[in-house]
Amino acid sequence: MRWTRSLINTLREDPQDAEIVSHKLMLRAGLIRRLGGGLYTFLPLGLRALRKVERIVREEMDRAGALEILMPALQPAELWEQSGRFGAMSASMFRLKDRGERTMVLGPTHEEVVTDLAAREINSYRQLPCTLYQIQTKFRDEIRPRFGLMRAKEFIMKDAYSFDVSLDAADASYQAMYDAYVRIFTRCGLDTRAVEADTGDIGGNWSHEFMVMADAGEDAILLCEACAYAANQERAERRADPPAQARPETPPLEPVATPGARTIEEVSRLLGCEPRRLVKTIICAVDGRPAAVLVDGDRELNLAKLKRALGARSVELADDATIEQATGAPVGFAGPAGLKIPVYADLALRGAADRISGANRADTHVRHLDLDRDAVIAGYHDLAVVVAGDGCPRCAGHLVERRGIEVGHVFKLGTKYTEAFEATYLGEQGGSAETMVMGCYGIGVTRTLQAVIEQRHDADGIRWPAAVAPYVVSLLLLDPGDAAVAEAAARVERELEARGLDVLLDDRSERPGVKFKDADLIGLPFRVVAGAKALAKGCFEVRPRGAKESLLVPVDEVAAWLDERYREALQETTR
C-alpha cells in the first residue's frame, strides 16, 4: 500500500479527550476516530489490525472444534424476559420498539438467542457436545464511556457457547475454550493472566477472566507471591485468621455519646481507637429485604461475595429510609446488638469481642461488643474486599495487587439458561428428556486490539507484535524523485508482498524526519529506509521496531532477511 493512496492522518499532539496511552496512540496513529461518546470509526490502519485479531480468534476457535454462526444483533425482549434478565440488565441495554410496538433490544450479549437456537436445533445426545461461536457487534449503554475502545457503547466481541450432556462433559468443553484463549492471547503478543472471577449478570457458578497486565487497567487483581492463586478483587478470597480461643470475659455493653460521628474515621478519632476496633454494620437490601452485614472497621464490604454467599438474586446497599426503619437510628449509628433483621458477619469477626459498634440510637455507639453474647449471627461468610497484604487462601503466602485489563471471560453456566428455554436432549437410553449443560466464553475483540497497544508501546509510539500489525514492513522512500531509489524500493515491495509480508510504502514528499517519526508512531515491526546514500552501497537500512541501530542489508537480500525474522517473530508467539 502506498501512503499517498491511503487514508492515514497522524497527529503530533495527544488529543485532549484521551486519558490512557493506548487511546492516545490509536488516535494519533490514525487507527480510529471518535464519532460520539463511546462510538468510534475504524480507519484503514485500525481495521487491518482488527481483522488480524479476528483471524487469530477464528483460527483458534476452529482449531478447538467450535462452529461459527452469526446471530442477530437486534433481539426480541421476550427472550430476555424468559431468562429473567430483562429487568436485571435493563439499565445497560439499548431498547426500542418496532412499528408493531414490540419491544426489542440491541444485544449486549447472546445467551438468550443461542439457547433458544439450541433448544430448537439440538434434540439428541448424538448432536452433543456442540460449541457455537460468532464475532458480532454488541451494544451497551455505558453510563460513562471512557478509555476509547476499552469502555465503548458499541464494540466487537467473539462469544462462544457450549452445550453438553453432563457437568463432566461441560468441564471438558470449558477446558478446551480456556486452552484456546491461552493460544489466542499468546499469538496476539499479550502477557495475560487467567484469574478467578465473579460471574456477574451472566450467571453460573464458576468463571475465569483473562487479564492483560497493565498499569492503566480498570480491574484490581490479587496475586499470590508464593503460588499460582490469582483472582479479581470481586472474587478474591483471603486466609482468615483463626478465631480467638481463650479470652477474658468482656465487660457489659457500655453506651458512649458520639454526637455527629457517623463514619468509621470520625468515631475512631473521637474515641481514640484504631478503626479495626470498630465493627462496621452495613444495612443491605437482599432480594428486597433488609439485612445487616458486619465487617471489620478497616474493611469494605464486597457486595458480589455477599450475593454469592446468600444465593441471592439481587443485593444492594439500603437507602436511608430503610436503614432508619431497620435500626431505629439515623444513618451512621447501626450496630448488630438487638437488631430484628438477619445479621451476617465476615469470617474474620468469628469470636470477636470487646469491640465498638453503633448503638442503634442517634449520636450513640457502644463499647465492649461481644458478637457471641450480644448479637444473633445468621451466618459467617467471606464478605470483605481483599487487599494487598492479606493471606493467600491456598497457601501460606501473601497477596499483592496488580492492575489488569479484562480481554476475555469464560463461564461455567450450568443449566441457568437451558432450563429457562427448555433446551433438552434425548439420552442414549431414551426415556425422559435431559437438560443440556451450558458454558459461555467471550473475548472483547476491539478491547484486545487496544490492550495490545496499552501493553506494547514506548515513548515514540506503538510497538506492534508481528501477528496483529496492520502492515509488517514500513518502507520509507527518502528520495521519491530518484528513479533508481524508487525502482529498487518498488522491487523490494513486490518481493515482500510475494512472501506474504504486508508493506506500507511511504512515498510522500515529506522530510525524512517526518517519515521517521510517523514510522515510529505507527509502530510496524520492521522499518526499511530506501535512500540514495545507502543504495550507492547496494543496500537499504533495516531496523526492527525498538532496535537501537539500523543494519545495512544488500537490496537483493532485504526480502529474505525480513521474511526470516518475521517468521521467527511469529514462531515466538505460537510455541
Summarize the structure.
By secondary structure, this protein is an alpha+beta fold. Helix content is about 25%, strand content about 30%. A hairpin with a 2-residue loop joins β25 and β26 (about 460).
Topology:
Blueprint: H1 21-28, E1 32-36, E2 39-42, H2 44-63, E3 67-68, E4 74-76, H3 77-83, E5 94-97, E6 103-106, H4 111-121, E7 130-139, E8 154-164, H5 167-187, E9 192-196, E10 206-213, E11 219-224, E12 230-232, E13 254-257, H6 264-271, E14 279-286, E15 289-296, H7 303-310, E16 315-317, H8 320-327, E17 343-346, E18 355-361, E19 364-369, H9 371-374, E20 379-381, E21 399-414, H10 416-420, E22 424-426, E23 433-435, E24 437-444, H11 445-455, E25 457-458, E26 461-462, E27 473-477, H12 483-498, E28 503-506, H13 512-522, E29 526-530, H14 532-535, E30 539-544, E31 551-554, H15 558-572
Parallel strand pairs: 3-7, 15-17, 17-20, 27-28, 27-29
Antiparallel strand pairs: 1-2, 4-6, 5-6, 7-8, 8-24, 9-10, 10-21, 11-12, 11-21, 13-19, 14-15, 14-16, 18-19, 21-24, 22-23, 25-26, 29-30, 30-31
Question: What can you tell me about this protein's structure?
Answer:
Helix content is 27%, strand content 29%. With 575 residues, it is α+β, with helices and mostly antiparallel strands. A hairpin with a 2-residue loop joins β25 (457-458) and β26 (461-462). α2 (44-63) packs across α11 and α12 (483-498) runs parallel beside α15. The protein starts with 20 loop residues before the first helix and ends with a helix. The relative contact order is 0.14. The model has no long low-confidence stretch (mean pLDDT 93).
